[in-house]
């Protein structure tokens, strides 16, 4: 694949120029062999090359992975994988390999064949490249720094899912119910953090960070006579252990969606809670938490033609994505 990115950057002095652009070329190759429902072999190779503005060294990243999956006992499956990665900006030698190469691995234990539940625990040690197209595009008013090192990241995930679905023809109100709980521990030696520069413009810096993330998702599908009511809710909490504040990332976030479907009409009520965020690594200045409400309406005119309208922030709460903007 190929990607072209062009973005205008807000600057205090228009004559000084506010333009920054880069090019990215990426590709992926995969192969999989499955002998039966529980034994499999996979290979995956990912390539990405970044072409940055004049004066910034271009970057190349390659990720190669081979993994084996097999059933240990009746309801449990084990996956093991070996990784060899290359990053042009990785300036250390690991296990006697040339600089830039990084060998690592992963492991996963999961349930298999259970009807109503799923559980998985996984570990991954990975060399994660800096991706400016993800990091900078999440924010406004930036002066990008592109020459940032990759991060060595230990990640432990634990996730459980419980699903109940009514497949009978009985007139039960509850058609489906799902709960998903996920916990993540991550240790990162080069976590990418936003910091302000002259003129209140953002760029990036790196620092070692350990974090714990907990997320819960709950959803219901209800049937009320000939109408449907879908309810979904999620909540996420992140704890950061670092020497400075982690900026523009909320510790608490929550969302709920209530969708009512009746014939040709669909009404969706959405609420989002964006928690308080730090705006500076060194001091305690913050942007306050905010609750947003959105209301959408859809009417089906034909099979492939809909009339849709939406009201964003109908509570009219004031909020900022960036400090002083």
What's the structural blueprint in terms of helices and strands?
Blueprint: E1 2-8, E2 19-34, E3 40-51, E4 59-73, E5 76-87, E6 101-111, E7 117-128, H1 132-135, E8 151-165, E9 174-197, E10 201-224, E11 227-241, E12 252-262, E13 265-274, E14 277-278, E15 286-287, E16 290-302, E17 305-311
Task: Provide a descriptive summary of the structure in words.
It is a single chain. With 325 residues, the chain is mainly β. The chain is built from one helix and 17 strands. The chain has one helix spanning 132-135, and strands at residues 2-8, 19-34, 40-51, 59-73, 76-87, 101-111, 117-128, 151-165, 174-197, 201-224, 227-241, 252-262, 265-274, 277-278, 286-287, 290-302, 305-311. Strand 12 and strand 13 (265-274) form a beta hairpin. The two termini are 36 Å apart.
């Amino acid at each position: 694949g190929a990607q072209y990115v062009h973005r205008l950057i807000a600057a205090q002095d228009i004559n000084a120029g506010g333009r920054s652009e880069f090019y990215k070329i990426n590709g992926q190759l995969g192969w999989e062999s499955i002998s039966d429902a529980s034994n499999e072999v996979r290979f995956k190779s990912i390539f990405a090359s970044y072409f940055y503005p004049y004066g910034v060294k271009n970057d190349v990243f390659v990720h190669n992975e081979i993994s084996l999956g097999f059933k240990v006992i009746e309801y449990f499956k084990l996956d093991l994988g070996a990784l060899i990665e290359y990053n042009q900006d990785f300036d250390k030698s690991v296990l006697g390999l040339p600089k830039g190469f990084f060998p690592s691995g992963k492991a996963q234990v999961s349930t298999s064949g259970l009807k109503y539940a799923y559980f998985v625990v996984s570990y991954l040690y990975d060399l994660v490249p800096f991706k400016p197209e993800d990091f900078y595009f999440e924010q406004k008013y930036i002066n990008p720094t592109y020459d940032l090192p990759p991060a060595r990241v230990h990640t432990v995930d634990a996730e459980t899912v419980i699903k109940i679905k009514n497949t009978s023809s009985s007139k039960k109100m509850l058609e489906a119910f799902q709960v998903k709980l996920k916990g993540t521990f991550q240790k990162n030696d080069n976590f990418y953090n936003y910091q302000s520069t002259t003129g209140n413009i953002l760029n990036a810096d790196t620092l070692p960070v350990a974090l714990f993330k907990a997320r819960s998702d709950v959803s219901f599908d209800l049937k009320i006579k000939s109408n449907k009511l879908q309810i979904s809710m999620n909540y996420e909490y992140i704890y950061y252990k670092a020497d400075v504040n982690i900026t523009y990332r909320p510790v608490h976030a929550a969302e709920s969606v209530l969708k009512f479907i009746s014939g040709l009409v669909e009404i969706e009520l959405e609420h989002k809670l964006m928690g308080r965020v730090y705006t500076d690594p060194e001091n305690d200045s913050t942007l306050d938490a905010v609750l947003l409400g959105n209301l959408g309406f859809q009417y089906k005119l034909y099979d492939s033609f809909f009339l849709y309208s939406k009201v964003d922030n109908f509570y009219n709460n004031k909020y900022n994505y960036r400090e002083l903007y």
